[in-house]
Amino acid sequence: xxxHPTNADLRTALAQLLCLSGDWSRxxxxxxxxxxxxxxxxxxxxxxxxxxxxxxxxxxxxxxxSGGRMVDAILTNTLLPQMSRQLLSAGTRDEKxxxxxxxxxxxxxxxxxxx
Length: 115
Description:
It is built from 4 helices and 3 strands, in the order ααβααββ. The chain is an alpha+beta fold. The chain has one domain: Helicase, Ruva Protein, domain 3 (Orthogonal Bundle), CATH 1.10.8. A 3-stranded mixed β-sheet has the order 1-2-3. Helix 1 packs antiparallel against helix 2 (24-38) and helix 1 runs antiparallel to helix 4. The protein is globular. The chain starts with 7 loop residues before the first helix and ends with a strand.
């Protein structure tokens, strides 16, 4: 079996499997790696994930029925749309972002790119 450490999709699948097995710290490490690899523009942006995000993802992934699939759902349906809207908007203004703090506040995931 050949390793593909730069394949973001494989990291997502691995994170889901790690969640299903209960290995939360390794799953979060894979998610952080995925954040860095998933989008070309994000490679130049430093992401910081607050402990509140980690706690919320872990809380949502403990359900037996959904487990690791929740990680993908959280990223795909919540965080990525927020990030995409901000990046597309910045592109129209020719802005370049360098930092992405991600937090969980007021019962919602929050991300706000900064220069």
